[in-house]
Each structure stands twice: as C-alpha cells, then as structure tokens.
C-alpha cells in the first residue's frame, strides 16, 4: 500500500499541499514582506528538499514585429533546509524577505506575484500563487506626483524589454508614458517618458525622454528622423523633495 501511495504522490495524487499567507499584500520597493508557509502532508511521507519563494512579473518583448508577454523571475528566496513531512502532518514555516528596489510598480498591466514551491524529489512539485500590490516609495511617488502637477497625465505604464543601453540586473524596464494635458508643456511636447533606476530608498536615477511636438517642415523632418527626442539622465534624492517640482520643470524646459 505504501508503495502504491508513493507512486500516486509522484504523479501529484495525494501529495503534499502548500499555502502561503502574507501578513500584508501592499508593499513598497525595498520594503519587508513577512508571512508563513503552511504545508500539509499527503497520503505518504515525503522529503521536501527545499521551499523557495519567487517574485514574478511579465514584460513585453518584441520579435519579428510581434509583441508578446514573457514571464520573468525578479528575485528568488530559499527558505529552509531539507525536511520530511509525514502523512497528514501540518508544518508552518515563517519567512521574511526584502523586496528588491527594482521591482516594478503595480500599475497599468504590470502585475507582480509571489509563487511558493516545494521541491520534492520524484514528485510533481506543489505550488501556490499570491499577488502583491507594489506601490511607489516616498521618493518615486513624489516624482510621479510632481510630473502630474506640471500638467501631465499618465497614458500608459508597461514593463518592456530593456534596450541594451538601459539594461541593468533585469532584462526589462518599467516605462511611465505621460502626455501633457494642461500647463506650459501642452502644445510643446507630444509625450514624456520616465524610467526609474533606484539606488536606495533615498536616491533614484531617472531616465527621461522628452518628445517635442513637430513645428513646420523642419519639425516634421526631425520627427521622421527621431531628432525631436531628447534622452536625459539625472539623479533625484530625498534632499530634492522641497523643490522637486521646480527641478523637474527646469529639466524638461531645457529640452522642450
């Protein structure tokens, strides 16, 4: 009977179950996530080689003039040493880990989730999936708010395959695309694009693309040759917060 149970467990019938409970599902980049992994043994004793949590998202990749979503692991965390779970036995494994600073924000089509997997030899590994709501930290939120205060509206926010010059640890970037709807930049710019590269909670490098509106024949020729775009890199720190709107306005004006 035990051999039969082991054979069933190896194909996922009567095997261990896993359920992860997060203390909170709303977090900021660089913040701590805590929770407990609940494991319930199946119909036979099984050795769990490891439990690991993976932080996941997807990004848009282009190939042969087609765009498609690609899953990617942003980070991975191992929780335990090998152990054995008996038939029907319940175990609880508490955990905590720090969210990486470069995790994308939960906005637009960008989704972030945690998967919990048990690595069980010769068995179908049980998994669990929990979505997170990742919100901007204070510095990033202040930048996004300042951009809106300057008269821009967020049109789109997507994780896309990173061009070589912008590639860091991950194969994608999260791009925030704004259009001017009021204020001094309406009529001067077509759009404004932002990408964050956080160095710490108190410092972030920003890649900004300013897309000027075509004016006259020369402007249309520049637009056709993509000469109407300016790419800017600059750093914002917590010390900039009191004058952040003015700093961004000055930077955008310089390339408008």
From TrEMBL:
The organism's place on the tree of life at top rank: Bacteria
Database matches in InterPro entries: Spore_0_M
Protein name, UniProt field: Sporulation-control protein
Species, as recorded: Mesobacillus persicus
């Amino acid at each position: 009977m035990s051999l039969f149970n082991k054979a069933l467990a190896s194909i996922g019938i009567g095997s261990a179950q896993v359920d992860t409970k997060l203390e909170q599902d709303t977090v900021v980049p660089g913040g701590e996530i805590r929770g407990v992994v609940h494991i319930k043994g199946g119909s036979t004793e099984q050795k769990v080689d490891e439990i690991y949590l993976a932080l996941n998202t997807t990004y848009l990749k282009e190939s042969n003039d087609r765009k498609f979503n690609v899953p990617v692991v942003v980070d991975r965390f191992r929780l335990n040493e090998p152990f054995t779970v008996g038939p029907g036995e319940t175990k609880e494994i508490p955990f905590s880990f720090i969210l990486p600073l470069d995790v994308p924000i939960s906005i637009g089509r960008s989704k972030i989730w945690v998967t919990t997997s048990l690595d069980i030899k010769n068995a179908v590994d049980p998994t669990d999936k929990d979505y997170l709501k990742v919100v901007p930290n204070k510095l990033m939120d202040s930048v996004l708010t300042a951009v809106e205060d300057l008269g821009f509206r967020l049109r789109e926010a997507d994780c896309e395959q990173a061009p070589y010059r912008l590639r860091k640890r991950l194969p994608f970037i999260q791009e925030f695309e704004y259009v001017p709807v009021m204020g001094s930049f309406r009529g001067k710019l077509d759009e404004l694009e932002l990408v964050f590269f956080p160095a710490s909670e108190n410092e972030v490098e920003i890649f900004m693309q300013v897309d000027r509106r075509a004016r006259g024949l020369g402007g249309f020729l520049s637009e056709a040759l993509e000469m109407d775009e300016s790419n800017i890199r600059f750093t914002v720190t917590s010390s900039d917060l009191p004058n952040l709107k003015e700093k961004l306005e000055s930077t955008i004006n310089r390339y408008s």
